[in-house]
Design goal:
This protein is α+β, with helices and mostly antiparallel strands and 166 residues long. The chain contains 4 helices and 3 strands. The longest helix has 27 residues.
């Protein structure tokens, strides 16, 4: 019996995508695809692709030994609570509360120690806290090549069409 090997096609891929338009804002790209959907275009043949990616880091505050210790204590308390609850499940009688409180206490102590050690290890090279996010600068709407002309025709009729389209 002969076996055939089938390669799975990725769910988010199109066979031969072609550019319908590039937009400065995601909302504009979304509006264009929504308009195509309203016009009963087969939008399952469309993709919105973020391009020209950049990483944005927002500084949220200064980092000090006190803040490092506090953050360590908080995360340690949660970890200790989890371990304490697990130990408390297997304890008998009223000793489950003792197991939980002991877990939280040890978690806080170890969390403070690890938080301070981690901050000290940076050697003052990063004395701030931040959050990072990768964002796209532009958004390109891609359409399956067989349907590109139809999509272009429909998008030409779109009222208040975003300037950067087509």
């Amino acid at each position: 019996m002969a076996s055939t090997t089938r390669t799975a096609r990725p769910v988010i891929a199109l066979d031969y995508p072609m550019s319908l338009g590039t937009f400065e804002k995601y909302d504009d790209a979304q509006r264009a695809v929504d308009y195509l959907s309203d016009e009963e275009f087969a939008v399952q043949n469309c993709m919105i692709v973020g391009t020209e990616l950049k990483q944005v880091e927002r500084v949220t505050g200064r980092l000090t030994y006190a803040r490092a210790a506090l953050a360590g204590a908080a995360s340690g308390a949660w970890m200790g609570l989890f371990v304490g609850l697990l130990l408390g499940l297997f304890s008998n009688g009223g000793s489950w509360l003792v197991a939980v409180l002991t877990g939280v206490l040890f978690g806080v102590v170890f969390g403070i120690a690890l938080g301070l050690a981690g901050y000290a290890a940076t050697g003052g090279r990063r004395d701030f806290t931040s959050v990072s996010q990768v964002v796209a600068t532009r958004y390109e709407v891609l359409v399956e090549h067989k349907l590109l002309a139809q999509a272009q025709e429909l998008l030409q009729r779109m009222p208040n069409r975003p300037q950067s389209a087509l």
